[in-house]
TrEMBL record:
Its EC number is 2.7.1.71. Coiled coil: none annotated. Belongs to the shikimate kinase family. Keywords: Amino-acid biosynthesis, Aromatic amino acid biosynthesis, ATP-binding, Cytoplasm, Kinase, Magnesium, Metal-binding, Nucleotide-binding, Transferase. This is Shikimate kinase. One of its GO terms (cellular component) is cytosol. The gene is aroK. The keyword Magnesium applies. One of its GO terms (molecular function) is magnesium ion binding. GO terms for biological process: amino acid biosynthetic process; aromatic amino acid family biosynthetic process; chorismate biosynthetic process.
Amino acid sequence: MKIYLIGYMGSGKSTLGKVLAREKEMDFIDFDDYLEGKEGKRIAEIFEEKGEIYFRKQEAHYLQELLEGFDNTIISLGGGTPCYGNAMERIKAAEGTSVYINVPVDELTRRLWSQRDHRPVLKHQNTPEKLEEFVRKHLFERSYYYNQAAIKIMVKGQSVPQLVNELGEKLF
């Protein structure tokens, strides 16, 4: 079994994926960490040194590696991964199940405010209002791809254990 967790940055894909993988005795891969390991650089450095186009090309290449291998694995994809090229089509055609972790804009903004310096696409959002406007617009653009996931989990204040339980019920 393979599970692909998708959703906006800060939605909790890695947190939920790690806990569920531990509970179900599965492997876990954080795609951002995987990509950084392959490139030998942090994502922010890749963006700064080589630009977003290079990053997205490499992201598509490494996504293919994950789609073709790694059985019994939960994979937390990057927030933009399913939204470029034909990535979502490839995810849906691959063996495994895609899950959209859907978090409301206000909650995403709250979570991302303290993380914006470490996320290349957010570092210029210098007020909570600007960040919320950016997230709202960005999420609207990406929701077309996210909503193609086979399973959707709506985050409405549940705790991590409650969300992991809900996810487990829908998957197993």
